[in-house]
Amino acid sequence: MDASRIRNFCIIAHVDHGKSTLADRLLERTGTLSSRQMVDQVLDQMELERERGITIKLTAVTMEYTARDGSRYLLNLIDTPGHVDFSYEVSRSLAACEGALLVVDASQGVEAQTLANFLLALDHGLEIVPVINKIDLPNARPDEVAQEIEETLGLEAASALRISAKTGQGVDEVLEAIVRQIPPPRGDSAGPLRALIFDSHFDSYRGVVAYVRVVDGQIQVGDRIRLMSSGQEYETDGLWVFRPALVPVDRLDAGQVGAITAGIKEIRHARVGDTVTSAARPAAEPLPGYRPPLPMVFSGLYPVDSEEYPRLRDSLERLRLNDAALSFEPESSAALGFGFRCGFLGLLHMDIVQERLEREFDLELVTTAPSVAYRVKLRGGREATVHNPAEWPDPGSIEAVLEPYVRATIVTPGDYVGPVMELCQERRGQFVGMEYPVPSRAVVTYDLPLAEILLDFYDRLKSVTRGYASLDYRYIEHREGDLVKLDVLINGRPVDALSCIVHRDKAYHRGRRLVERLKELIPRQLFEVPIQAAIGSRVIARETLRALRKDVLAKCYGGDVTRKRKLLERQREGKRRMKQLGVVEVPQEAFMAVLRID
Ligand code: GTP
User: Fold this and answer.
1) Where is the Tr-type G domain (predicted)?
2) Any known ligand binding at 19?
3) Is residue 21 within 8 Å of residue 477, measured between CB atoms?
4) 198: helix, coil or strand?
5) Which pLDDT tens digit goes with each residue over 547-585?
6) Residue 20 CA, ligand 1 centroid: distance in Å
7) Distance, CA of 347 to CA of 349 (rounded, Å)
8) C-alpha–C-alpha distance, residues 56 and 49, integer Å
9) Which residues lie with the beta carbon below 6 Å from any ligand 1 atom?
């Protein structure tokens, strides 16, 4: 089809403002899927999966639409992941589009992710169509929200569409706006092939399915392709479009959105953001903006049962087939034995991986508190990256330490500005700016150490604003900080997996709270156990776990066998997640205690 009849767009919104509901309505209105078919379609796909082992992920869909001008258009809707952990992926999805629908809830107004996504879309030069959703709600205030959009985002909002994705009211106008306001793709259809990978997944039957936006040139089945970041070459064995199931086609032209399969065995070889070109006639330059995924949060994963180590390694390798952002390397800990130091994009990504390992692979894990990547400048000009406190260099050899900072945007009702600023200050935030786009609402910007956000920052923010504030943040740079390593000694032995890196000013307080918390979490033993916090050789806090004669059957005078068994079983249950540290047993919670200390 003529590129002038193609529109590539995405929907950006704060969580829960109605992105998925609007997408469903668009599919319905264009007859791509009726609600009845939605069910059938899903079943079809499952059948397909059963027969040929193809897994399908709906991250893009092509709709056919006959506009009021009588012409037929192809509308490609590209999904964007919503969470801040995946901001780079969001940015690649945006790079595949010419326009974006910016959905704002008529009862909630502009929130932190609305702002953050809007700024990203603006960066990519997208045409932005504001859409005020949920006007059917009794507490909808579309006029105010329109004013807010105008003042916060500088978009002309008097003409903003006012819709209800739920009832369908106004949705036809959205389709017309896509055709009229969003420009058709520009690109050099005669030039060498350049296609942007904006998403990908691993399919056990076809290998990697790379979702692409063809920017220049064209690609046909059988063409040899080259991935520009690695130089690796493959032969295209399939080209697909999303209808919304994958339908095979012979070629994809400039402006089009589709998928390429080429027998690529690992997702790392066809990463999001990479450019696909032709091996025979390669493009001189890749499309701008490629970045290898940058892990920001690190944590040690150890099997509770050390015999499970090989299975943990296999499971991580399996996960990595489908998750280009997951990194891991073997690590050993004096306290926990053999495990892996894993790198994640953020906390959500970390949770997802840990949960999948436990659920899908049935592994029992002890995870250490997450840490960030510090850049440590050593005397003599060397520099080391440390993402495991246990590898912290000798303090005497350290010249300076740099830690990752994020820029955080917090949108809050005006009444809570005080507590929000207090919280940010307490977390070593550096004030950047504040605006009141409308009198009732403030946008507060701070630069914060990422390490301070890993602690319970989001929970605290929600609690000091009674749930009203929203938060978005992005990594900006590493900055210098006065950081020290806080060690924990249990029964006189340093427990490497409990060490953490803290700001010097907070070390005393943190050490104090940490030993108190550990005292609560570690069950009493048959002997007295000292718990100490130390910086270098200086002990800064100490608690003592009193001795206990731990005989669970003591209370069970004689008789009842079932009751005895129950008690013994309960004791065994309690033991499951413990690690034997020397002679002391330490439960999983203790390793995460570092996190929940204010
Ligand atoms: P995530 O998928 O979590 O990012 O959220 P989303 O932005 O996709 O929102 P979703 O479409 O899941 O909608 C969130 C909630 O709002 C759901 O309970 C919807 O039923 C509801 N909702 C969406 N649009 C409307 C609307 O126009 N009116 C009303 N009353 N509710 C709506």
Assistant:
1) 4-186
2) yes
3) no
4) strand
5) 875 555 445 444 455 555 555 555 554 444 456 666 677
6) 7
7) 5
8) 8
9) 13, 15-21, 82, 133-134, 136-137, 164-166
